[in-house]
Design a protein that fits this description.
Blueprint: H1 2-19, H2 57-71, H3 75-88, H4 93-103, H5 114-133, H6 138-148
Length: 158
């Protein structure tokens, strides 16, 4: 019976942890008011949200859907979603970052063709240029700068 009691205690703590809400508002940046996340809800992708610097709800939603598709290894759909985010808000730096990330190598496609490499380089270059003038967080700049080290415009580079 001692084992059953131990299992019961573990289950109580596990259930208590499951009941805590993970959808509570998260702060967007230092000193900013918390923002309730918008959830991507496209064909059962599930709740995915990563706040990006945009005032356009359509851009935020498209970015979240792109991220959900990226997490699901649907890179082609992710690229289209990130393009929609950029169309909705051309100053949404993370929309260009997302396109570059989705075009690049991944677990299922470790080698990309030279044209895709060049496209990704051009997109991350756009993101870097826009990040220099657009109101973005330091975290977004860090994402962009980190991904920029992955791509080059030299097709013979290793």
């Amino acid at each position: 019976m001692r084992i059953n009691h131990g299992i019961a205690v573990v289950m109580v703590f596990w259930l208590a942890g499951c009941s805590s809400s993970s959808s509570s508002p998260k702060p967007t940046s230092a000193g900013a008011a918390p923002v309730k996340p918008m959830l991507a809800d496209d064909g059962g992708l599930g709740p995915v949200h990563h706040w990006v610097s945009t005032k356009n709800p359509a851009a935020q939603r498209a970015f979240d859907e792109g991220l959900a598709h990226l997490y699901g290894f649907n890179h082609d759909a992710a690229v289209q979603d990130f393009k929609r985010a950029a169309d909705a808000d051309p100053d949404c730096v993370m929309a260009y970052w997302g396109q570059a990330l989705a075009i690049g190598p991944n677990y299922n496609m470790p080698d990309v063709d030279p044209q895709a490499q060049l496209n990704a380089f051009n997109l991350i270059t756009q993101a870097r240029q826009r990040a220099a003038t657009a109101p973005v967080t330091q975290q977004e700049r860090d994402y962009v700068n980190a991904l920029a080290t992955r791509y080059t415009d030299n097709p013979s580079a290793d």
